[in-house]
Amino acid sequence: MSSSFTHRCLKMLLAGTALAGSVQVSTAAPTRHKHHASTHRTASPATTPVAATAAPVAMTAPRPTPAPVMARSQPEEIAVTGRSSRTRQPGGGLMRVETAPKAVQTITHDFIAKLAPSVNLQQVIAMLPSANVTQADPFGLYTGQTNIRGFDGTEVGWLLDGAPLNDIGGGQFYANEVLESENLDNVSVQPGSVNIDTPVTSASAGMTSMTMSNPSHHAGGIMDVSFGSFDTFRQFIRLNSGDIGNSGVRAMFAFSHTKGNTWRGPGQAEKYHYDFKLVKDFRNGSHTGLTVAYNDQTNDFYLAPNLSQWRTTGYSTNYATDYVGPTAAGANYYKLHVNPFENVVAVLPTHLVITPKLTLEDSLYFWHGIGNGTGASVINASTYMGNQAVKLDLGGAKSVLALAPSNQEQFRTGNTIALHYKPDNHHDLTLGWWYEYANLYQYSPYGIVNQATGEANNIWGTTNTIQTTSGQPFRARDFLSLTQVNTIFIGDTMKYFNDRLNILVGFKEAMVTRRMYNYTPGTQYNRNLHTPEPLPQIGILWNFNKHHQIYVSGSTNFKAPSNTSLVDYYGTSGVQTQKGGASKPEYTIQEELGYRYNGELIVGSISFFNYNLTNRQQTLNYYDGNAGASYSQTVNAGGQTTRGVDIQLSTRAWHHLRPYATFEYLHSTIDNNIRVGTDLLPTAGKIAVRAPSKQAKLGLDYDLGGFWISGQVMYVGKQYASFMNDSSIPQYVTNQVGIGYRFKNVGFMKSPQIQLNMTNLTGAKFRSGVYGFTTNLKATKGVNGTMIAAGNQPTYYLNPPFSAMVTLSTGF
């Protein structure tokens, strides 16, 4: 994106402030890097709470129609102050009172507003008991890693206003590309279960749904500017149209620009982000709207060190600052390891009231992404493409240093439609259909590099690429995946005994068809895979009174096989490195027993869970020296059993304090021995990778109205980095603090605020997560007696050092 274009956008946005007025906020009851390599890369708008953006007001949310014994949250007082909102939500916004007959963990804007405004979604949910989040950087410009109850992020469905965000090929999710925190109203994690109408194919571990804040009913907006460590600079503006006459239409538009240096080694990250939301309300209770999020980002990669590199170069480990010439060492030049990516998601949700007993829900969505993760390698004029020997046009040179990007372009479009019929006060019958068609094209060209400077002619890998002497593009891989999804679902929500007993039953049949076309010479041109999955679920909840409830739930979930499992791969030596074939879907059966307490002061929950998993799909991240790029490969890790308990405890406002505490115990074991070559690794009974047995987190919010302080401390136990448990990272503790002061109105500025956010206050240095795991770090005797050679060394995330960001914000 050109700087002139950005300047024009900013001028238009700032000019719009001349029309600004005061902004009021309404509330509603709660509604229900990873490299861009290889496989990568429901809330209705009329009822979603609105982000805090304006002049201070004090409001009491209307209490929902009371039921005699239903556990409900108390009305929340809201005072809006710039980008920050003050409420009496439990735990400072880290816990919301839930009533679903399943585990749901929700964070509201009350907590989000007190984080650094640049944070991404993964950093927002890090305090939830079921989430094990590893940060790649302190300010959310890079995607880190999220594991939910020991399952990785590719096994979780991620949604924005009902639209799926997972990569359709392998299920990856990139939190830095989705939504700015000022526009994130709330985010809910459902560990272990998805709703019957949820449009996801990568959700064996549950779902995470986020809601973009609604446009305000009054014209105005919010501006903020941030300065942080590592020369990080960020600007943000949001404009609310307010109600447009008597049309029932209101809209908001937001723009942000963030730029900063990497915290270790050379390089930087820069992103431009646009959010838009429109809501149209009808008098009969119907509503529709449009949500759009567009992101344009270019990041220089961090090198994930292995244990040897960690021990020798530690926090200095990264790609090379200086170019040393067109050699293998020159391939480590940081300018040859860049991740450019653009993506847009749009969703059109509609709620149509046909009769008082009959309603229709429809959600049409579209997702497009294009970009790559780059690497570099020295290639020879005589080489292989697939299994065919070829000659390359290198301008007469015998070998050159070349850019090796892993490109992809992806289109997803789909629609979820559901009919709801309420014949009486006891039933809500649902019948619906989800259809999606996705096109994912992945190819790895070789780009021309200036041999004297080490800079690529085009980091996107779309032009200035190396050709064979016959004029054919030279590519390490080249394939197209077409995915079609049909899901039919039916459900019933029943309420008895004056709403004491709630029963939810549902069933959906998911049918996923993949067609893969491989254009690399010597590979099988076409492979198809059809995956039908029956997915029943049930939830039962009993309300003893307005303070106590218990629930039990059972659900089935699945993850479709990765598209790359169907692909044949060859190295540039002509040797086949992977043979594609039919893969089995990952399938989970989950049971849960929970108890919730909703008191006048204390709010708490405890949930016991058990998962039985078959065909566990694990993604190995590795660097292919022949192709010169980073890739991921999915392996079938067999069965897995996961058991544990999640505990949350918080208080409402008490002497301006709102503490929060959570704990998780997790026991996740591999059920079988895993095949490696012609033998089996003795992995049965071993602990699953990235599954710490203990996590504990403490949060404290102190808010006087003007001055506030919010702090969190997180403990994460030991995590294994290999199937054989012969490699691990030790337990660690990390922390973050936010401090702010809200001022009185000054001129056109409504409730201006200054805010300081700090992370890792002690400056501790440690490995914080497993980037790429391995089968076995050490040579191991197989079940059949053969010696299985050691696998690749695992690679790791490093915890970012002490970092700080100052933010000035105001409503207008």
TrEMBL record:
SUPFAM superfamilies referenced in this protein's UniProt entry, alphabetically: Porins
Location of region: Disordered: 28-49, 64-94
Record's subcellular location: Cell outer membrane
Topology of the protein relative to the lipid bilayer: Multi-pass membrane protein
Chief subcellular location: membrane
Organism domain of life: Bacteria
Record domain TonB-dependent receptor plug: where: 97-193
Protein name: TonB-dependent receptor
Taxonomic classification: Bacteria, Pseudomonadati, Pseudomonadota, Alphaproteobacteria, Acetobacterales
